[in-house]
Queue: 4 jobs
Job 1
Amino acid sequence: MSLPPGFLDELRTRTSLGQVIGRKVMWDQRKSNQAKGDLWAPCPFHQEKTASFHVDDRKGFYYCFGCHAKGDAISFVKDTENVGFMEAVEILAREAGMQMPARDPEARVKADRRSQLAEVLEQAVQYFRLQLKTAQGGPARDYLDRRGLNEAAQDRWGIGFAPDTRHGLLSHFKDKGIAEDLVVASGLAIKPDDGGAAYDRFRGRIIFPIRDARGRAISLGGRALDPNARAKYLNGPETELFDKGRALYNFRNAREAAGKGQPLIVAEGYMDVIALSEAGFEATVAPLGTAITEDQLRLMWRIAPEPVIALDGDTAGLRAAMRLIDIALPLIEAGQSLRFAILPEGLDPDDLIKAQGAGAMRKLVEGASPMVTLLWRRETEGRIFDSPERRAALDRDLRAVIGRIGDPSIRDHYRAEIARLRRELFAPRRAARPRGSARSRFLPPAPAMAETRGTLLASAGKGAIEEVLREAVILATLITHPDLIETFESALERLEMATDDHRDLQRLILSHAHDPAPDLRARIERDAGPHLIEKLFSLNHVRIAPSLRRADDRDLAAMCLAEELAKLDAARGARREVADAEEDISALADEGLTWRLSEAAKAREAAARGKGEDKGLFDRADNGVMLAREEKEALEALLRQIDDAKSQPKPE
């Protein structure tokens, strides 16, 4: 069976050699640089302990410095799977989602036709380049000169000009004996459906050749010189050679430049690519008249692990960035994502470079934002979150978006970063201290007396153990009742755990929040080992919790979770208020104030004990809410006494 020209090139382009070989070897992390596709491992073809087997993922070749084995993805599959050439091709094509050519006698005819179409396109490129140098090409040359593209640059990019005539190219091909149907099939001419005469597709336009990974012309793009033209840019149609959703402008040159260490930049169009490349950013590509597709994303990742999407800062550019996020989220992997460089509004890359120099563009690329930043911006920009319902709607939307991430580890990190951004958005902001306050009137503040340091204000940390135990009950309850996670997910995300173990458990619970399997405990033990679970459930405080003693009572578990979360929130809020109050009175501490504070502390402790009526931490489901309210009331009383202390004389 013969394969059509270009099939193997496309297969190699769409296949990651690192991924193919990575299934058979363990990469040496000390020697490998995965970001640059430079991978090392012990050779799979001979026994060795050192990493002498080298893979250049970008070029698609491997070589062993020990046994001298070498080849590409096809030869590797052949040798490791013990299959023939065509079987190896079929294996890789299936993994890459490519349809194998039909095994029929017409395959050779189709291959010959593709070769003919490629030759027709190459001749068209040469024809249009000659037209650019004629008198008719004067306006086009003037435009290119204004854009800073001299004759040498025009030759480098194969830029041409299509005169504004209906049959210029067709007449040229007719004189050369090339059949009209080939010109139409290549996308260079249009044949009306009503049977009328064919005519040139590109007229009155500057021409840009579109080439594949081998450098062959597979289509053309044209920019109109007439400002009133219906389409400013026009690409060739889908043909046997050209699939615009699976091609990138300047792919071949960008791949070579990225292999030398340049960052891969994704611009919007031909002129952006050319301007950036001429300014030194040679690893630049652009989609071809469509929004970036999944196949184009995979092509980009074959060149670089983190392409920088450089888009105009206008509404259309931002909208394109937001659409791309939805395409990329299910595909991102460890070390494989996107970054975004949003240009100043009204400027394209060429404008920015001309106005501020290549350094400004380089700074923009180096400071490109990670995808999670754009995701957060999309979900929050222009929205007001002044009610619990609106904040809940944001939580719902964020959960849905993050849930689309396929990689569990990345989903976990996204959830953590979104939780951090959410805390920043909703964190209470302290009111500015008014002028003339106690702190500003007494500088520097006098140190508090020893007796004052022993009061409630200075010893707020004494409740830390109690808070850790509350955290333990919350975590254990959620692990025992995973169906409650969705209800309490937002509260759990916002909770600042006091210990590393609790932070690890919090992260693991959230990472499995939307898993279909109910056995959360087993999943956590699988991910982190049994020690975290054993340590948590061995706590006596956890074992006696009603939500654990009566594990079959879901409603009781929900009530216990609400209670413990309310207690934690009240205790930590009170501690923050106490810290603020301590700052205010640090310059006023004396025996009288110390006495009043100690009395207030006793009052609070009495309230916390429930006035002797509390029969245990969990005996009444509403007891925690009552204590939280009493703690708040005691704190308010304390603060009132502080205000009184500032204005009353010390008792004799």
Job 2
Amino acid sequence: MLQLLYIQNYAIIEQLTLGFSPQLNIITGETGAGKSILMGALSLILGGRADSSVLRNTDQKCYAEGIFSIDEKPEVIAFLRANELEFDKELVVRREIAASGKSRAFINDTPVTIQQLKELASMLVDLHQQFDTLELGNAGFQRMVLDAMANQLPLLQLYRLQFNQWQKAAEELEELRNQKAGFNKELDYNRFLYDELEEAALAENEMEELDKELQLLSNAEDIKNVLSRLHFDLKESETPIVSSLKQMANQLQQYQSFHAQLPGLSARLQSAQIELLDIANELSGVSDAITSDPQRLNWINDRLAIGYKLFKKHNVLTTAELLAIQNNLQQKMQAVLNIDEAIAEKESATAQLYQQALEIAQQLSTARHQQAPELEQQVNQLLAQIGMPNARLKAAITESPLQADGIDAIEFLFDANKSNRFEPVRKVASGGELSRLMLCIKSLVARSIDLPTMIFDEIDTGISGEASKQVGIIMKNLASQRQVIAITHQPQIAGKADRHFYVYKEPVGETVKTNIRILSQEERINAIAQMLGGEKPTAAALENAREMVIG
């Protein structure tokens, strides 16, 4: 509910503060007094287009601020939480326009984007202006009307959850099929690469080990010569090093009792002699083990040639990387075998989800078909009540493929003159007809769902007398359940107000500014009498106005 509207420096409005009733608020005034300007300022806090040309004083910013009560608005609270905006029982929405044309939006003093402001505003205010036909001609709005009147919104929410699950499964199925197509395209090439690696049959670290063995075999003779010479020098020469060390140790041993360090030195000579003897024996064993094998050498070269060719082909440097590629290729080929099973399982799950969604969609469709005649009857009765006795609305429902809202394509058709030539509302209804039709429909929908604050800007153009009275009655009934704000020229509608605002121009020095005030009961009677009979109303007009106000 809009509790307070504050406007500053907008067009001919210098500064205004309006406090609204929670029920029916009527705004009247002379033509050109600034009623439409008031709506323009209000549209700013609803995310409307900002233009620096509206600034009354270009030295100051333009402000439009609305204070809303959000006690019973769970979707508003959910939006504020989702956007990490602080909130209390009251919500302050503000828009500022600088002389440069730059505008800023705030929700509870926190800067927000215009898109965020628009999204929130749609939950707070439903602004309907004459010739505003987009919503009424919108298939989504038409479907919502039927579902609301049939009390099917909870079932629609359940359906959408099911529909989204089916869509997700269908997307996953399509992805699997695309994967299979890609797999099949690559399968032959992957199999060729895998067979080539499998035929090579490389063992773990084989290339690295063969490379070492190649180095050994290529230098076998030189290595054996070095080993033999070392063995000879250590053990078999005329003065072998091992024998010389043994003699040195023996010579030192006979004197080791004469000095404290000699036993240690003697022991070290003995250890060196034993270690060198062991080395000499190992050198001999290693030399014997090394053989020159030309056949083995050729085989290793051939094997390495195969391996290095594969290294180059796959752009790797190690046997481990090559084996990892082989394993990956094997998994890809196995995936081709597994994907058919996965596709079959996903097809079954998708079909089941589709069937579940279809069953709920059929329930929705049945309820819509049942509700359509009742909607037509109620709307047509209201149209006759407000001065359109020959107008007819028809809710045409045709079957469509499964979509986000079910299996129904819904189109409101309209015949203004009992011609039985029904055409889509958006094509044939005039601005005034659309406005009154929207009022009738929204008054019916309001019985089923919690609509936001509803604002009607001169939707009563082109009607008078009894039709105006009936529009006033509809608005009054509508306002018993939610806040309604209406700008009107019709006294019959103004007489139904719970709070009556009067917009007027006021000369200030050499300028003119717009002002607005709440009328007392006597002021209301006089204002309505003027709407009925001119600036100087007759006694009859005053009496008529009194009856409209007091009843």
Job 3
Amino acid sequence: MKKLMKQLMVVSFFSVVFLLSTIIVIFTYILFEGPPEFETAENTVVYDQYDEVVSVNHGVESRYSVSLEDISPHVIDAFIAAEDQHFHEHYGFDFKRIVGAAYHNIMTQRRSQGASTITQQYARNVFLTHNRTWERKIQEALIALRLEVFQSKDEILEGYLNTIYFGHGQYGIEAASQFYFDKTASELTVAESALLASVPRGPSLYSPINNYERAVERQQWILSRMRDTGKIVNSEYRSALEESLAIVTTVDAQQEIGDYFLDYAMSEAANILDVTREELEAGGYQIHTTIDPGAQAILEEKSMERLPEDEEYQVGAVTLDHQTGQIVALHGGRNFHTTPYNRAVRAERMTGSAFKPFLYYAALVYGYTPSTTLESTFTQFTLEDGSIYDPSNYNNRYAERPVTLAQALAVSDNVYAVKTNMFMGPENLVEAAQLFGIEDNLEPRLPLALGTTSVSPFDMAKSYSLIANSGWQVEPYIIEKIVDRNGDTVYQHQAKTPERVLDENYSFVLKHMMTGMFDDRLSDYLRVTGASISHALEHEYAGKSGTTKNDAWMVGFSPNYTTAVWTGFDDHRLLETTQEKQAAKQIWGDYMSELHEGLTVETFKIPSGVTGVYVDPMTGALNGPACEDRSRLTYYIRGTEPTETCEEVEVE
């Protein structure tokens, strides 16, 4: 007997030593390993310039992370009641529940009850697979202990609620709340909280979309648990049972506006951060863009209203705030989901007469004034290679007399433009175009005056913004700032000091001449090119249209915004109908008119180096009795304004 007792004491001693050693080894391991580290995919959210959400980007998984303070307390109470009643008392394991579950499973001869705590579930969901092996169970226990040692209960609960799966690709309480109820997790009611708490037990089984009755049945059980544990009182319990729950699932609805804009913004953000698009979209970033959703919606609406019915006829358009450089709207095509190719930034198309402002800026510097006259008649030019070049005006109409620069620009006289290029020298036009940022495909030849080079709508808007901005160059941008998943700002746009590229006085004279396309007083042998849209324009605008056999352009600006619109076919087929040739101009006019509704009417600021006088646009002479009905205020570099009146200048 004594020998047996001695053996039992030895066994007990070594058992205690083994147990203590095991505990010491486990805690040494835990202290050595430290807190478990992980990083899960998380939704990247895109904001407009007013810090409102315009897009949520994710792959097959939709995830948000929110702090515990931003989660309704009803959610916390519901999950604790449903999953782990003693969460705040245990250290990762609820041994009483483990024993109870084991007894129940033995008695029923099946594994119908589990005893995983919230801490264990968190460890399994984030760090481990769901394979039921002893190895995974041991790993789960160790990670649960590490969580309990190094994190507070609130930190564990916050991590758990942000990572559990709610079905339909939704991870975390915020994603689930927005997906099922179109509201944030902080706004959830008792009934809604209990319904969502029912889903993680079996997302396919308890999804209110797939099995509404079964989900409600479990929700009611959770509500009863909340009542029994004192989380809600009887009146709250009854109200929750009676509450009507509307499942809306709107969070993954297709983006309504700005698909091309947002795709371009995401590409720019990925370049800034030097990550892939996939890494960006699942990186939990907050991307603040320059989009003005009102402007974007108007641009897309007016485009669709004016585009011909032919589905292959496309549009590319962009709007800049030329004073700040913000890209406020961008439209790259008829339908992003059909053709994601972004024509606003990628399509380079022949500009036609929209190129002429670059020519006439060079001409002003060369010595031209708005009153400089050249003969408008059918003219053949001999090119450098000896071939004959005979540009024509619209409908082969010519003034058959000298016309002024101001009028030639307003009615888009092609002969005047080519003559100017010839007299000034094509090399000067190339230099001027490069000054405006147009550098590719520039050959110093006479036809360049009529826009034989190809440019994207983005680059045309950028070039025209120099004129709009009194010669100052402000670099366009689309990303304001980027915040990472930890709340740290990892990128902030820093505006470069503006650089003066154009002379202030010459650029203003050109700018004011470009308002002439909307002024019928300049119409004569040809009508001003903006006459068809001028009736809708109540603010001051300047611009230039351009039409080739394959492309239609309208580029222009107000004191507030610069907008370029291109329309045509991707395969460069001919524009045949009037609508196909006029669509760009009509879109621009409708869009700019509505964009400026409610804005204070402003005029272009006049620099001190110019002077304005009333002149006859046909002769370029000062206003007099013989031309009072057609005189127009015109600006000149000081000292270059005309001195003769229209009576002294003969009009043939």
Job 4
Amino acid sequence: MSRWGFVGRTDELDRLHSAVDGAEGRGLILSGHAGIGKSRLLREGVSALPADRYAIWYVAASTATAALPFGGLAQVLPAEQPQGLSPAGVLRWGVEVLQEQAAGRRIVLAIDDAHLLDPPSAALVHLLARQENTTILGTLRNGEQVPLPIRALWTDDLVEHFELAPLGPAETANLLAAILDGPVDAGSADRLFRLSAGNPLLLRELVLAAAGGGELDRRYGVWRWTGRLELAPSLTDLIDTRIGRLEPGVRAVVELVAFGEPLGLHLLYQAAEQADVELAEERGLITMVRDDRRLDVRLAHPLYGEMMRRRCPVTRTRRLQARLAELLELVGARRRGDLLRVAVWRLDSGTAQDATLLLGAAAQAFARYDVPLATRLARAALDAGGGFDAAELLATILMFADRPDEAIRVLDAVAGEIDCDQRRSRWLTVRGMVSYWGLSRESTVEEIAQAGAALTDPGDQARVRAFEAIMRLHGLDGTAALRLARSVLDRPAASVAARELARCTIAHLDAARGQFRSSATAIARVAAEAPHWRSDMPYLQLAMELARGTRLALAGDLAGIDAIVADEFADLAGAGDFRLGTGYLAILQAYAARLRGRSGEALKVSLGACAVLATSRVYAGLAQAERAQAAALRGEAEHAAEAMAEADRTHAPGMVVLYPWLEQARGAVLAAGGDLPGATKHLGDLADRLRGDGFAGHEVLVLHDLVRLGQATAPVGPTCTDGSRRTVAQRLGELSEQVDGVLPPLLARYARATVAGDDAELLAVADGFAALDLPVWAAEATATALRELRRERAASAGAAHQRLAGLLGGCDQIRTPALEALRPALSDRERQIATLAAAGVTSRAIAERLFLSTRTVENHLQRVYSKLGITGRAELPAALRSITGHDGTEPA
């Protein structure tokens, strides 16, 4: 584990530096809670100041020096003070001594924990702040008594006063990545952020405790926290200091809230004395949160709850939980989550005997995608005599907890309880789901079809057919899938869940075929019916998201991807450890980042998806394929090939419908490795296969990849009667009239403009790509235009360089064949001279630095201008940026 580096706080650091060297040069006092990072920010800011310009003194006040006159400034004042001076004279002497030591430089006095300064030191600091050549920087801890001279610093407008806020989620994730030498998966980073409440000191103790307890695991370079927390002594001491000593009544309040939060204030008043509740709030242990018309009570910090729950004796814990359940049962379960809370309290207190209560709570937890909690409750319901219904639910949950073998055992144990078509249909579909996707048994489709045909009830038969339809789709039998799905929609007896699952199958198939409008309409209908199917089939959300994600990705609708990644389902899935959900959404997020040129983010997020899906094969291959694409975009050929091999190893046989994404990634990997002929042949064969399967939506993007490789005139498809074959550009033109959306016509325009060498049309297409937030493709179109302009030695090449530089400036490191083809073959000497000239160094100065004649430098520059297709030095910086992403000559 690395040393805790300084991450984030850029704005705050800039504000601190501005307080020193800004126009006014006023000081700055930082306030904040303990551990928020005030001291570290002050140290980092002061250490960056040049000692030749500033006389810098850094002091740390403490309780040990608070009672000693000038103890707080003992580190900067001489040990011996003049005798016989009045108090005012001593203060003037202190100012004169520091001015003398500064030797004409501006004084910067930084005081950590300024609230602990003794009175004389505080008075001297205030006097120094009034000097024209002195800047005071300092930190204060919230809740502490501040000496009046220090408080007067900002009330007298001598310094600014600034409250330092906790780290945000992104800053916390960056800090974790810096410390652990690698990214942390989004779910773990979010949980650690919430537990630490953005406090770096608490975050540090949490990470040390997790690492010391072996609760941090690294897969595919991504760290994942199990969620189990060991309260190490240092962490315990830190929380103890914050909580302080508790009176019995206040302790009872804090314990009740720890086990029951969020707890209605009216409910808390029935279990504790009102005076104790008020005292707990006054001491900052609990806080009131308005939720609609109810006032809820929560702990002021999440770690208070961890501490109180760990330290509470088992017997008292069970008594408190039973009491909370009784109170809520007495007032009545008024809110949707109350049933779930009562069941958990009953379960944890050992008083759970009602299988119906536990089963209903388990269904609620699963509908919220809280897989661990749903598993506990469903197992308890089964143990309490819940029978077939409990077993069915438990097996379903175990499937999504990556425990398919156990799920099969649970289902087979209740096979003897199947006494009607309804139970048989539910048993068949759950067992089929576990067998097909959990255990990758492809024969399951035929088995479920045969068993479903024996059912007599139309509604029960429709449920089995809906599952068979989506299995057929995932096995790439689109014709049968469509027929089955339509038959389900045609049956009035079909349940809402069965109908909407069938609709998801049709929506996914429509998306793959490029019928985006009908796909969007179907998905909107499924989403609208969610309240009616979620309690019966919450995992239907996955089918809906797969259909929706396929449509958005094929249509290039990145804003739509952003919307579903930020949707409530993403939050619920992440909080509830619903890995298939979080994993798939992370794949979509990486896809959007890649098309936006954010290759670093794409690689990081795809690695996170690989880690989350490591124990599940449903989307594992897709995650690895996206990782391969991200690595290929960055030009990391070896990494891309490794990820592609993992995609082949982990791809599930029951998810053949995903083959277009995997095979498209394989083409990118071949190209990144330098095998352009191999990539061209592979993508051409893939386009033929997609055309045969009717997947026009996918075919458009694969053909576009061929255009990006410079193969717009390559032949594709079958041989015509005259012996000829269509070109890639011609086939794209045909598909642009068949596939919905604004993207296909734009891709067809790009292909035609590439064939024609029409630089004006290529630049217009680049503008179209940029408007769709597709800067990588925009940059490639601009680069293609620029190659034409260079050949023509057109005067507009300089402007095109500017445009390309702007596009690449908004991207991370990207290396694609289209961009690589633009890089001119500059010699080492030409690179060196071009770099210096772009930085504004004159030809004479370059000649002196490199021991050349000025004429030689000018000759080299003329050759550089010719190779870059520009007319002079003024265009050189943009030209270099356009081929490298920065003002140098090596790849960014």
